[in-house]
Amino acid sequence: MLKNGSSDSSESSDLVTSSPANYEAIKSGAELEKQILEDLEKRQPQMLKTNWWAILLTFISGVCFTGSTALIKGLNTIDPMDLLVLRGLIQLVAILPFVIYERKNPFGPPNVRLYLLLEGFIGGLTLVSLFFATRRLPLGDSTTVIYSSPIFVVLMSYVFLKEACGFFRTLIIFVLMTGTVFVLQPPIFFQENAENWDVWGYTAAILCAFFTAINIVLMRKCKEVHYSLLVFHFSVWCTVMALILNFVPGPWESGGDLIDATLVQWVFAVMVGILGLVGQVLLTRALSMEGAGKVSVTRTLDIVLAFVVQVFWWEQVPGWMSILGAFLVCISVAAIGTEEQIGRLAAVIP
To answer: Per the UniProt record, which residue ranges are transmembrane (predicted)?
Structure first.
């Protein structure tokens, strides 16, 4: 009994004397936050540092892209394929000197020529779908649907590139698909919109998102190809396709010939090409200065800009479902863009 008592007393004494040390090991919230930030700075400094010039360039590129698509929609008396031909020619004139200066083979390196050819072909289809969808749909809706391309990117990366698709990606894709459905409002789910639903317009927007995803996957295969060659092939194909569609009757026909346009319309038509080219150059420059994650998050502002232009220029106020869908698409694209950073953050937080 005495032995046990002394043992208990000894254990109690040890507990008392050790308690202050244990309590001191527990850090306050401020100290813990400071430690986490120090660990992040030591292990992943790129997570805490942002190149704000790159973010600014990305935002300006978004303004350029939005301005270009707004002009495509605004020039409704001119055939969109005529506008695409002009844009393709402007891009060719601008990029050809770089191809010559870099002394690049126009067909690209032998081992990736097929991928380069496909990238240009799919890029042409992407712009054809973009111009057609922009002309027929509200600007905010078309932009939101087109930005849902990560759905196809993740699926194709999983199937063809054997990239992992864990719980996080699956959840984000589900949210992204939900947002896209809210914007599309297909008659199969929303019977009240059956009469006014533009089948051609929304089909073109979905195809544009699909082709964009294919292009992203193909560009991963063309990493060693100089950017000027990618733009060169892309410009050639979109020009050829638009010229062919000019002579083929179909739903893409709307408006008159560009040749008969007024001087003011010609100026705006040229601006479509210039804004598109400048936006692409600025975006490429931003990607060279900052990670793709932060750039993609900034690019979600394009959707907001599109809805702002839609409301103030065409006075088309979107419904609550379109706004909710656009919001879901924005946060999904932002989440996919910051997936790597989120993973790194989770790895260093104790």
So the answer is: 52-72, 84-102, 114-133, 145-161, 168-188, 200-218, 230-248, 263-283, 295-313, 319-337
Q: State the Cα–Cα distance between residues 47 and 88, nearest whole angstrom.
A: 38
The dihedral sign for the CA sequence 159, 161, 166, 170? negative
Q: How is residue 199 written in tokens? A: 């089948």
Rounded distance between C-alpha atoms, residue 170 and residue 202, angstroms:
24
By three-state DSSP, how is residue 30 classified? helix
Q: 207-222 as b/e, with b when 16 or more CB fall inside 10 Å?
A: bbbbbbbbbbbbbebb
Per-domain boundaries in the chain: 51-348
Helix orientation angle between 292-299 and 52-74, rounded to the nearest 10 degrees:
40
For residue range 25-36, what is the model confidence (pLDDT) as tens digits?
Answer: 444 445 545 555
At 261-297, the pLDDT tens digits run: 899 999 999 999 999 889 888 887 787 677 666 777 7
Q: Residue with structure tokens 């294919």?
A: 214
| Residue 275: Cβ-neighbour burial (10 angstroms; 0-12, 13-18, 19+) | buried
Sort residue 50 into left (φ over 0), alpha (ψ -120 to 50) or beta. beta
